Amino acid sequence: MLTAWLKHIEFAHSWVLGALLLLPILIYEYIKRNKKQQASLLVTTTHFIKGEASLITSAKHILFALRCIAIICLIIALARPREKFTETQTTGEGIDIMLCFDISGSMTEKDFSPDRLGASKQVASEFVKNRPGDEIGIVIFSSLSFTLCPLTTDHDAVLGQIENIESGYLQDEGTAIGSGLATSVDRLRNSKAKNKIIILLTDGVDFGGTIPPDLALQMAKYYGIKIFTIGVGSEKDVDEMVDSPLGPVVEHKKLQFNEALLKNLADQTSGQYFHATDNDALIKIYASINQLEKSKVSVTGYNNYIDKYLPFLIAAFVFLLIELLLRYTVFKKFP
């Protein structure tokens, strides 16, 4: 708890904390003085009240402990602890970006690690982190499409939603690329940004859905939206373990991939097509897009502070008051 508190606290006058080094000296002097007083008060005729006297003498150390705690609190208060908040203000020409994720069953193929969708999520998250100032949103689709996150500069929220993407989220199977693109276009059409792009990530096999890709393409062209397409996977033969009435068996199948569709979507909107065959290729593709569509953004940081010295100041006076009350009541000395 103390460690977590210290992570967000800094001291305006940290040099004052050096006064805490005087405490060991005070403690040493107190112990030394107390030993001298005990030696000078030894009286042989008071053996019958020895138990009571030693108890009171021991309890008197509480006064010194309270005084030390009060001094510590006062020094910390004088050092002026404060909680720091950093705010950033972005200015300049940002880009509005919709990340359009295919979450159909084919995106669970294992030709990527851990699978196509998992690899896509990891690399997309790194892309978002490298786009300060841009508004970014997320659309997911299978046979249906859904806006998972509207355009926002809150990239923590975007990253959180990317993390939550799972295949089967929309339940209905299919790969409605047209519907996914149409929903992305709808989210960008009222944008005031000079540059608007869609990053479509899919294996390119379109079936199902109510909006054909050609119609979604015309919508994107009408609103001046570029489409960057990333084809994930390849047409190759793989062996897959499946359940059968006789138990698990190995099934030989060919992975599907429609490259022509993705190339056409990119070419028609002045975007670019990329083909990702493994995790490393996917990383390089996002890096390329990051270079192609750079935004002119300046980030200015502002530090705000909330003073936290008052509780320590109050505590110092409370401990001092308790010490005084005990000194002149319970431990009062009579002549």
Please report the number of helical segments: 11
Instruction: Give the ordered list of helices and strands.
Output: HEHHHEEHEEHHEHEEEHEHEH
Count of the domains: 2
CATH architect. name of the largest domain: 3-Layer(aba) Sandwich
**Low-confidence residue ranges:** none
Q: Helices and strands in order, then pairings?
A:
Blueprint: H1 2-7, E1 9-11, H2 23-40, H3 50-59, H4 61-78, E2 81-93, E3 95-102, H5 116-129, E4 135-141, E5 145-152, H6 155-164, H7 177-188, E6 195-202, H8 213-222, E7 226-232, E8 237-242, E9 249-254, H9 259-268, E10 272-276, H10 279-292, E11 296-307, H11 310-327
Parallel strand pairs: 3-4, 3-6, 6-7, 7-10
Antiparallel strand pairs: 1-2, 2-11, 4-5, 8-9
Helix pairs in contact: 4-11, 5-6, 5-10, 7-8
Report on the architecture of this protein.
The chain is an alpha/beta fold and 335 residues long. The protein has two domains: 2-84 and 304-327, no CATH class; 95-294, von Willebrand factor, type A domain (Rossmann fold, 3-Layer(aba) Sandwich). The protein is built from eleven helices and eleven strands. It has helices at residues 2-7, 23-40, 50-59, 61-78, 116-129, 155-164, 177-188, 213-222, 259-268, 279-292, 310-327, and strands spanning 9-11, 81-93, 95-102, 135-141, 145-152, 195-202, 226-232, 237-242, 249-254, 272-276, 296-307. The longest helix has 18 residues, at 23-40. The relative contact order is 0.16.
